[in-house]
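User: Please predict the structure of the protein below. I'd like the answer in structure-token form so I can feed it into my own downstream comparison script.

Assistant: Understood. Taking the following sequence of 640 residues as input:
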Amino acid sequence: MCNTCWARKTVISYTTMIRDELESRLQEAVTATREGRFEDAVRILQELTSVPDLSAFPELQIHGLMWLGEALAMLGRGKEAQELVDQILVLARRNTESNAHIVLADALHALGNICLRQQGYHQAMQYYEEARSINEGLNRKQPLAANLGNMGMVYSNKLGDYSSAQPLLERAVKICQEIGDSAGEGNNTCNLGTLYFHVGNYPKALLCYEHALAIDEQLGNKHSIAIDYGNIGNVHAQTGALDRALHYCSLELAIHNELHNVAERARVLTNIASLLKNLGMYNEAMGMLEEALAVHREYDNKDQIANTLSGLGDLHVDMHNYDAAIDCFNESSRIYSTLGTVSNVAALEGKLGVTLIVLNRLPEALKILHRSARMHRELGQKMQLAVAEGNIGNIYANKSFVKHSTTKAVRYYQKALAYFRSVNDLIHMYTVHKYLSDLCHSELRWKEAYEHQNAALEYEKQVKSSEARIEADKLVMRRAIEEYQQRALSERVQLERQISQQQEILTHKTLQLIQQTEMIDAIRTALQRVVRQADSAEKAITEVRKSLNSLPKQALNWQRFENDFVAVHPCFQATLKERYPTLTKTERKVCCLLRVGMKSHEIASLLFVSERTVENHRYHIKNKISPGDDRSITSLLNEI
């Protein structure tokens, strides 16, 4: 070999070695992210993206930055994540490798996720839509399902456009089912459940959440399991089963504690605090909110800081600590103003205005409520606008107000009443008619006072009747949920029994396969003796003939074994390929055999290789799946 060829081969070998090492580190970080170990993922990815040689591998560099951005966003470190967005986009659009379009689509999806965490919903939708267009053109079904699912989630959870969200989520679930993407099916089913939750269809929401939980438990995805628990808790909270809601929130909290997801833990504490507040456990709720706020301040997660401050303000109002409530509302409003989330600012201004009315600081309250009403009007939020105008009416109706005006009070009450009537909001209609009755009575306008009083009494009857129906509906819904859970438990027990039986059958068939393979190996040895021992060929041939006659009439069928394996472990191979794409076909085959309890020497017989080769395969599989983990490869595979 010439020196030039030798040098070129050496460089290629060295480059391949570096790339393999970088890919291994990236896979380790991806696994940590998917398992919810975001702190570990950030540490690995920061080390990876700081490697000087990384720029020689554009695809790896882009994917490293993508996963780093997503992990940072999940930890609430939004500012750091956002700083990576422009860098990722520039690198992805400049990439000229053969798979540039695939890398760009993946990068756009990741950027959408980062923007979503930073409440940049419209920007996130633009990234998702561009990624969807590329993946649709390339017929990349799994990434396409992820794009559709996230777009549906934004429409449903963030923009309130449920009619646009539902077909996107349903299509995403269907694609995942078609390609055997269990993780994607679980995620999109969860989002579909949230859509049903928002429109008040709690039984369907619970059905989706329970299905997602079953998938995530099978996959062993602890972070997703925690989210499922939280969602199930939300359903129970809405149906009045606060004890069950607290139970599921506690399960969610325990997993985030186990995974050391501090930011997620803080978010769950805020939800639990809301439940405790509704139960009148104010001190416990206060402690949780203050702990959550400290965490969000540490990570500078402004959106969650503002959200927690708003919750603290509500709690202070219930405890009649009005000055403390005002401080919380003011700080929360300032943060939302910085973030540009006008809707949240308008809501905070409304809360602040009502609190100032309670303190009889009416001029300040009027100014703030007018500002809130203007923002709601510009946003087209008619319900919130009507509430603000009703509160403005309360100020003008107050005789201690220096600018007291019955005429203005009536005008604002009538404007609010018109909207409440258009949506048949019985409670607010009762309240406004009661205000108008009291106002007219104080002005000695007896006839109008009488008319409004009668209207208020009529709406009060309807409200009580409606509340009774709602409570009855909740009771029916709770019973339906209990029946569903009992049925699901029964079906799960039956399924586990069937799987156990199928596992026994699969093990028996695998042992038969090993015996057949060992028999063939024995025949091979006998034939070799024929060649070596010519003088006793007749005797050796007789032995071979006996062995051939003892073989089963049917040939070995590895495909049939795989079919039997899938029947017992339907998600195993798809999950293995999705989570650990660097595993070779042979390594995946070894994983299947290890999953059914085969030993190295048995696998060697089945694959016609040496036991040492199988041990090498086990070593490489362990390094690709979970390097540095003390658990055995069999234990790791049993968790998939």
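That's the full token string. The mean pLDDT is 80.
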